[in-house]
Specification:
It is built from four helices and four strands, in the order ββαβααβα. It is an alpha/beta fold and 132 residues long. The chain has one domain. Helix 1 packs parallel to helix 3. The longest helix is centred in the last third of the chain and has 22 residues. The N and C termini lie far apart (34 Å).
Length: 132
């Protein structure tokens, strides 16, 4: 099944309702994923592997971005992605996570990365969650 949606500008105001046809503009696929999971009434949403470690550089991926990224990013085309840009991006995304969390209070950070600093939702123990 393929679902097409549109994005609309989001002025960083509280999100009071979910409209599946028009998502608030996104900077990370994790935003859309959480939005859709809340819309689908998932009881708990765990963020696994959501590092948001762009402060380490603009092209930090868990895969080979040269061969597997649809847009084939190139460091020479990203001079704008400096630390200020990345901090703004983080603030925007983390603020949206907070707004989405207030809708259902069912988003949990289960990232096991010791360097992970996202703290906009309750943290859970990854090992306990996965029954290790």
């Amino acid at each position: 099944m393929i679902f097409w949606y549109d994005c609309e500008e989001w002025g960083e105001a509280p999100i009071s309702h979910l409209d599946i046809s028009k998502l608030p503009a996104i900077w990370s696929v994790s935003e859309a994923t959480i939005y859709l999971a809340i819309y689908a009434w998932f009881k708990e949403i765990y963020l696994l592997g959501i590092d948001h470690d762009w402060l380490k550089g603009p092209l930090i991926y868990f895969y080979n971005e040269k061969t597997e990224h649809l847009m084939k990013p190139d460091k020479d085309r990203l001079p704008f992605a400096d630390a200020e840009y990345q901090m703004h991006r983080h603030a925007y995304i983390f603020h949206k996570y907070k707004c989405l969390y207030t809708l259902k209070e069912n988003i949990y950070n289960a990232n096991a990365d010791k360097d992970h600093y996202m703290d906009v939702s309750p943290k859970v123990d990854y090992d306990a969650l996965c029954n290790y």
